Automatic annotation (TrEMBL):
Chain intervals for the UniProt region annotation (Disordered): 42-72
Organism domain of life: Bacteria
Listed name of the protein: Ferritin-like domain-containing protein
Pfam families reported for this sequence: DUF455
InterPro entries attached to this UniProt entry: DUF455, Ferritin-like_SF, UCP012318
Coiled-coil ranges (or none): none
Species per Swiss-Prot/TrEMBL record: Mesobacterium hydrothermale
CDD domains the UniProt entry points to: Ferritin_like
Amino acid sequence: MMTLCEMAVDVLTTADGRAKTAKSRAHVEAWFDARAAGTPLEIGQADPPLRPARPQSPALLDPRDVPKRKPGSPAGRIALLHAVAHIELNAVDLHWDIIARFADIRMPVGFYDDWVKAAGEESKHFNLICDCLEALDSHYGALPAHAGMWRAAEDTADDFMGRLAVVPMVLEARGLDVTPGMIEIFRKAGETRAVEALEVIYGEEVGHVAYGSKWFHFLCGRHEIDPKDAFHDLVRRYFHGGLKPPFNEEKRAEAGLPPDFYWPLT
Ligand SMILES: [Fe+2]
Ligand SMILES: [Fe+2]
């Protein structure tokens, strides 16, 4: 039987997107089966790669070199879905990475439940968006993608609280801000399949931000530090460029992110 950390490294070192998400979903099932049986898997120890394995395509370009397309055109909508698929694949790796990278820090088993569940959901999101691309005669890898997506993980590779602050509480919270506008673009175009996929993503991402907030607050409590001040310090240290309104205040609140956390960082 593999430890949870071995499972995480198995996902992180698999390059192909569909193969990565298939392994991810199988490991999620194994974890929760063992939990349900009352015989939880060992967390173990791992040495995850600094960067996860990725497929040959898409080519990864500096964000400035990724061509911009009008969202009103069919090609623009394919480009938008392609960008979402890239984000979801990164998210699969990010959730497995937080499990393996910080396994030496003692955490309640619920921490692992949350990130294993989130990794399974990201795997489903990637597959749903790939299905949409394929239904439009495209695929993940057909267009270039942003190279900077793993930057936040590398910058916070030695800082557990920094990782929680920047990845779920800044980057995934940003997803809550922009997804309703994306859903509208596909609704106007009559692309029902993409609307349905994005609605699944929108619903489940609230949970990922909430897990971030929950475990960030837990660690602040453990170290007896003020969560809001710690959040501001860590985001300023590791996230470059400031946060951009408008914010989805309703969904952020649902996820445990109050306005005094993010407004001072704009
Ligand atoms: Fe996702
Ligand atoms: Fe997510």
